[in-house]
Design brief:
Distance between the termini: 59 Å
Shape: flat
Number of strands: 0
Length: about 700
């Protein structure tokens, strides 16, 4: 909006409701309104007036009111404050029109007990929602009905307030009355009969309002009530319109079930199996039923309206939440998702998101022909997408390897030619080389296969991670006996290479995802010298927490205990690297303690003393935490000869002994956070400052 220019009288009417919404806390409106618009321009003065009135500072209130122009969207708010300042200000308050968005608020305030403070609490907690409600009645769309979220208001008769609001509703249109009734019923179901009697609801409206009320505390009851509502509509509207309503209601309920699951999700829900036999009672039973109910609703909506890709996508996403684990009882859901995915792909073959999901599913099923078909379609739309091009080449090569195993060499050669058609620069060159080598060796063209292998090894010496696919190839296709020289050349190249840390991580991820897991540790055992350089480099780099967490997972495969032992024997300062903090965090510190010899323990102590002399905080250094985890702290205090360390540790012990802890309190067995909280309470009670030496 470049310019704030509206025709009268719409301008003042809209401005007043925008002002009410801003007072109600709808800050998102500020992003839509220009800075020179009156609602935005006068908002600071109006908020200052509110703060002054709430604090009882009449001087500041008067100064703030002067800054609000007479012709302003906040005129009614200004008149109300002025009437309150002058005591009996009914004459001034009478100038506020009933159509004002602030009118409902002012009439409600007259019902409050005459106490000095209620305005602060009421305005900040409830009046925001009242102005928000007024704005909603006039066609604006504030995000939340704040007022109706709270059912009890201190120092205020809620029933009396809502009754007054209902009496004011006769000036609004039927649609406005319907919105209010839905909101009031959601808060308190006793308002259902009152609204029904006051406005004469028919059967359909009554079912609709009651269903909306049940959505807040009984979603399964709400679904039954919505079904009754749909049955009541039959015969009174066309079948097309009824179908539209049914689909909309099913999707709405499914989203409510999903939202409830997210809001009420326990902290450890990610580690919980919602189909576990033990979860058949209470809230866990609701979680299980809600998942199934949401799926059932979305699936019905999809069957009723299979021409809507958004419903199909939502259903596929919900099913993905349930089928991303390998347990056997999820097989039915995975199959269900695949069936729906195939149906969705048939209905929407050109929809990008559904195409992407179908492509991933085909790769997972190793349906390489389907992968090639979808990838070609996507590549035609995005010809410079190298990831798609690589998937297409991998699909042709993987299908070609299948044909080689089946001894259908002509079909394999055809797949090889097709993969070469899509090769650009280096994209996919190693996959094509793999297929070419296997095909040549199986056809008896051993000299050609050896030449290709030697060429590949020479090219890969500076890219060691690309040598691993060839090594896996030998294991998987039984070529080691035919190409002993090439096998030794690959192993030699791997042993002498020093790959980057990220390249190693990508490589391990590739092997774990695409190849036999039993092959991975055998190959990784061959690369001890590259790994030593890898961890040496990683210790010096400033890795993020996410990257170090990846390293921890990597250690499980690489058996880092042996490498850490080597560091301990060498007594290297790398022993104090951040890697060890994460090593301790990964829960394997005690496992690491077992192989430590006396010499290694002394090397650890020496490394910590060097870190202390370098200026590190003795109680916070990662090495000292590691010493504590290994239960070596008492021995370290006995053996260390560094007087500065002894002095600091002695001062800490004296400080803790001087604190009046309860006699039955065992600091060593307490959770660290609980111990710190207890210490803080005692220090506060004793008047001890945290910052004192």
């Amino acid at each position: 909006m470049e310019k704030w220019d509206l025709e009268k009288p719409a301008k003042r009417l809209i401005e007043s409701h925008l002002a009410a919404a801003l007072i109600a806390g709808e800050d998102k409106l500020l992003e839509c309104l220009p800075a020179e618009s009156p609602p935005t321009k006068h908002l600071p003065a109006a908020m200052e007036a509110l703060d002054a009135y709430c604090s009882g500072d009449l001087t500041a209130l008067g100064a703030a009111l002067v800054r609000i122009p007479i012709v302003s969207p906040y005129r009614d708010l200004r008149l109300f404050f002025k009437s309150q300042m002058e005591g009996d200000g009914s004459a001034i308050a009478g100038k506020i029109k009933p159509s004002s968005p602030f009118a409902v608020l002012f009439s409600a305030l007259q019902d409050l007990p005459d106490q000095p403070l209620p305005f602060l609490q009421f305005l900040r907690e409830e009046a925001e929602g009242t102005a928000c409600l007024a704005a909603q009645f006039h066609g604006l769309s504030p995000a939340v009905f704040r007022f109706f979220r709270t059912t009890t208001i201190e120092n205020m008769d809620y029933t009396k307030f809502v009754a007054r609001v209902v009496r004011k509703l006769d000036q609004y249109e039927p649609q406005t009355i319907r919105r209010f009734c839905e909101t009031a019923i959601v808060i308190d179901r006793k308002w259902f009969s009152r609204c029904r009697d006051a406005f004469g609801f028919n059967q359909k409206e009554a079912l609709r309002f009651e269903a909306r009320a049940l959505e807040q505390h009984d979603l399964f009851g709400a679904r039954k009530k919505w079904e009754e509502y749909l049955e009541a509509l039959e015969g009174s509207i066309s079948q097309d319109r009824l179908l539209k309503y049914r689909v909309r209601i099913y999707v709405h309920l499914a989203r409510l079930f999903h939202k409830r699951l997210v809001l009420e999700e326990p902290d450890d829900w990610e580690d919980m199996d919602p189909w576990d036999d033990e979860l058949d009672e209470g809230e866990d039973s609701f979680q299980k039923k809600a998942h199934l109910e949401a799926l059932s609703l979305l699936e019905q909506a999809f069957r009723l309206k299979s021409d809507d890709p958004e419903i199909a996508l939502e259903l596929l996403n919900r099913l993905s939440d349930l089928t991303n684990t390998p347990e056997s009882h999820h097989k039915a859901h995975r199959q269900r998702r695949r069936t729906l995915l195939r149906e969705s792909y048939k209905c929407f073959p050109d929809h990008p998101e559904i195409q992407a999901k179908a492509l991933d599913d085909a790769i997972e099923r190793e349906a390489w022909k389907t992968v090639a078909k979808i990838a070609k379609t996507q590549l035609a739309r995005d010809p410079i997408n190298h990831a798609l091009r690589l998937k297409l080449i991998e699909a042709h090569c993987a299908h070609g390897l299948k044909m080689v195993k089946a001894k259908k060499y002509d079909l394999a050669a055809k797949e090889l030619d097709q993969s070469r058609e899509y090769q650009r620069a280096t994209v996919g060159k190693y996959m094509i080389l793999l297929l070419d080598i296997v095909l040549s060796s199986r056809r008896g063209e051993l000299e050609k296969a050896k030449a290709d292998l030697n060429l590949a090894i020479d090219r890969c010496r500076n890219e060691p991670q690309t040598l691993f696919p060839f090594l896996v190839l030998f294991r998987n296709h039984g070529l080691k006996s035919r190409f002993k020289a090439q096998d030794e050349a690959i192993l030699s190249a791997i042993r002498t290479s020093t790959p980057e840390p990220k390249a190693i991580m990508q490589l391990v991820d590739w092997m774990k995802r695409d190849h036999d897991p039993q092959v991975v540790p055998k190959i990784l055992n061959l690369v001890s010298s590259p790994l030593s350089a890898f961890f040496s480099k990683a210790a010096k780099l400033a890795y993020s927490k996410a990257e170090l967490a990846q390293l921890c997972e990597l250690w499980e495969d690489l058996d880092a205990v042996k490498l850490m032992e080597q560091y301990a024997k060498e007594g290297e300062t790398r022993f104090g690297a951040p890697l060890f903090t994460y090593y301790r965090f990964s829960g394997r510190a005690r496992e690491f303690a077992k192989p430590l010899t006396n010499r290694e323990v002394k090397a650890l102590f020496a490394a910590y003393e060097r870190a202390f002399e370098a200026g590190n905080d003795p109680a916070e250094a990662p090495l000292y935490r590691l010493i504590e985890e290994l239960e070596l702290a008492p021995r370290f205090m006995q053996e260390t000869k560094n007087p500065a360390i002894l002095e600091v540790m002695s001062a800490v012990d004296e400080f803790l002994e001087a604190m009046p802890f309860p006699e039955d309190m065992d600091l060593d067995s307490m959770d660290p956070e609980d111990a710190i909280a207890m210490l803080a309470q005692i220090m506060e009670a004793e008047g001890v400052d945290w910052d004192e030496p």
